[in-house]
Design goal:
By secondary structure, the protein is of the alpha/beta class. The protein is 30% helix and 27% strand. The protein has one domain: P-loop containing nucleotide triphosphate hydrolases (Rossmann fold, 3-Layer(aba) Sandwich), CATH 3.40.50. The strands form 2 sheets. The protein has a 4-stranded parallel β-sheet with strand order 2-7-1-8, with helices on both faces. A 4-stranded mixed β-sheet has the order 4-3-6-5. Strand 5 and strand 6 form a beta hairpin. The radius of gyration is 15 Å and the shape is globular.
Length: 128
Amino acid sequence: MTMYKYGLKVITGPSGVGKGTLVKKLLEEDKNIWLSISATTRSPREGEVDGNHYFFLKQKDFKNLIQEDGFLEWAEFAGNLYGTPRAEVQKQLSIGKKVLLEIELDGARQIRKTFKDAFQIFIAPPKL
């Protein structure tokens, strides 16, 4: 067992299934959970703070991190790159924090390959 065994928890499911509501409740109940901050190449929107809402990176820097295996998962959306920085997740785990990722299905599939010790929770939509 590694020191990270199940320290990384991934909540995934289709858009609109309630992942955000569940994450909000978990963060309210356990102050030792760190919600992962994604990196992106898009420009900050009004009020967004680097290192708080996202890590805002230049396209070149993001691509360099991809080449260096610096992301647990990453994707391109609407011409911008988004990803979960490996080093920041490992830093939080190494100081004893529980790390939580709220991501879409493709990202969760990548994490199964890049971080095998992650515990993944799939939130399914209700059956009609």
